[in-house]
Write a structure and sequence with these properties.
The protein has 207 residues and is an all-alpha fold. Helix content is 68%, strand content 0%. The chain folds into two domains: 61 residues; 137 residues. It is built from ten helices and no strands. The longest helix has 30 residues.
Length: 207
């Protein structure tokens, strides 16, 4: 496998999540915890904590975002609709709201991720929040997509969801939040329709 392509393990993702959760708990006490305190609360060593976060400020900057976002995929609990377009639009709307509400923290988090060595894949650089949400939105319609189309759709939607998209609308396009949401809604729905059409066409060719 080429350098830079290895995916973080589930254990690595859990460790990173544990550090963020521990930091949130300590910050709720009304003080700024040290990295030693966070590591102890998360039941990991100090060197391990520093492998995931280069400084305590980077960790504490991301912790409020992690707490605010939570498990966003839970918005679909009990929702049995198989309308892929609508569910994806609802997912993007939820992430859009959280992203704009936490813009300052997310900018700091993104800067910390960018400043890391791009060749260092020893630990995950960021928590993957958008893909679980996208997959939850598509769960009830998964059978309507071919494997290739589904994977391509998830990757394409990941470009529409989240912090980077907000930065483009804010800084590059100078677009207000409401307009940004309308454009992203249009794009997300268009991507779902395209994937469904390609999947249907592929199924017809196999017959």
């Amino acid at each position: 496998m080429k350098r830079g392509t290895r995916k973080p393990s589930n254990q690595q993702l859990r460790t990173r999540k544990d550090l963020l959760t521990a930091a949130s708990r300590l910050m709720k006490q009304g003080r700024k915890p040290t990295m030693d305190e966070v590591a102890q609360e998360a039941l990991v060593s100090r060197p391990t904590a520093y492998r995931y976060f280069k400084s305590v400020d980077a960790l504490l900057g991301e912790a409020p975002v992690d707490a605010a976002v939570g498990k966003m995929e839970d918005i679909f609990v009990g929702n049995t609709s198989d309308d892929a377009e609508t569910r994806i639009d609802e997912a993007e709307a939820a992430m859009h709201k959280v992203t704009y509400q936490n813009e300052a923290h997310l900018r700091v988090m993104l800067a910390n991720a960018i400043n890391r060595d791009p060749g260092d894949n020893s630990v995950p650089r960021r928590q993957n929040r958008r893909i679980p949400l996208i997959e939850a939105a598509l769960a009830t319609s998964r059978g309507r997509f071919g494997k290739k189309e589904y994977e391509t759709l998830c990757s394409a939607l990941a470009l529409v969801f989240g912090t980077e998209s907000m930065i483009v609308f804010r800084d590059v396009l100078r677009t207000d939040e409401a307009t940004a949401r309308k454009v992203k809604s249009w794009a997300a729905r268009a991507l779902v329709r395209a994937a469904l059409e390609e999947s249907a066409a592929g199924s017809r060719k196999k017959k």
